[in-house]
Amino acid sequence: MKTQENMDAYAILESDEFDSLLDAVELMAKAQGNLLSLQRSVEELKVMMEETSYAQDEFTLNDNIVIYDTIENVQELVDNLVDDFSMGKI
User: Fold this and answer.
1) What is the pLDDT along the chain (90 residues), one digit of tens a residue?
2) Whether the Cβ atoms of residue 81 and residue 35 lie closer than 8 Å to each other
């Protein structure tokens, strides 16, 4: 009986469907890693902009408002993507 179970398990591991499943899991892991990396990059950009704004005022007040609003919007979008991905919505 054990030999039959082992042969069945081996057949599953060697199947095209199992290979496809492994490929899908690998792609999902890469996507999650990319999203988390993007999330960190947006956070770093935010910190960099805050540090730069104190060091030099090359932009007008309106420019800074637009930049910060854009960064906030990007951060919200990325955070929502990360949340949706982790909850299986995407």
Assistant:
1) 678 888 888 888 888 888 898 888 888 888 888 888 888 998 888 888 777 765 556 777 788 788 888 888 988 988 888 888 777 776
2) yes
Cβ(35)–Cβ(78) under 8 Å? Answer: yes
Q: How far is CA 66 from the centre of its chain?
A: 25
CA 85 to centroid of chain Cα atoms: 8
CA pair distance 37, 43, nearest whole angstrom: 10
Distances (CA, A) of 8 to 16, 19, 45: 14, 16, 52
> What tokens were used for 47?
């910190």
